[in-house]
Amino acid sequence: MIDASTFLRRALLADAVFSGIAALGFTFGAGAFAALFNLPEALLRETGLFLIAYTALVGWLASRAAILKPLVLLVVVGNAAWTAGSIALLLSGAVSPNLAGELMVVAQAIATGVFAELQYVGLRKSGRVVAA
Distances from the Cα of 32 to the Cαs of 22, 39, 57, 58, 86, in angstroms? Predict the structure, then answer.
């Protein structure tokens, strides 16, 4: 366990807030977003369901003064992988979003990459190892 810096906790909280908004939107509004972005409804709904669990984890981590470093690293690596996967999805041809869909995927990929970077910086700013 590490003593989580305020910077890290705020980066995790911001990630949880934005992921939570996306989770609710994609879970309950998948049909509307599918039409708006020309993306598969199932992809959006399943993404939303995943983000519900992700939001719970990241929100819980943000609320802790002492955090397991491997869990934070998992979030950082997961965010970096999400960023790469989002761009790979667009390049793969597996989906054919319209311009709004492409912009949304790129924007959330950039935001997720920024969260990964902020969380990594916050992890490096975090303090000493604490006893459990």
Answer: 13, 10, 27, 27, 20
Please report the pLDDT score of residue 127 as a whole number. Answer: 81
pTM score: 0.91
Measured from the Cβ of residue 68, the count of other Cβ atoms closer than 10 Å reads 13
The ranges assigned to domains in the chain are: 2-125
Residue found by looking up tokens 């993404």 in the block: 47
Q: What is the pLDDT of residue 6?
A: 96
- Is the separation of the CB atoms in 30 and 48 below 8 Å? yes
Q: Which residue stretches of the chain have pLDDT < 70? A: 129-132
Tell me which residue has tokens 């983000």: 51
User: What CA–CA distance (Å, rounded) separates 82 from 97?
Assistant: 18
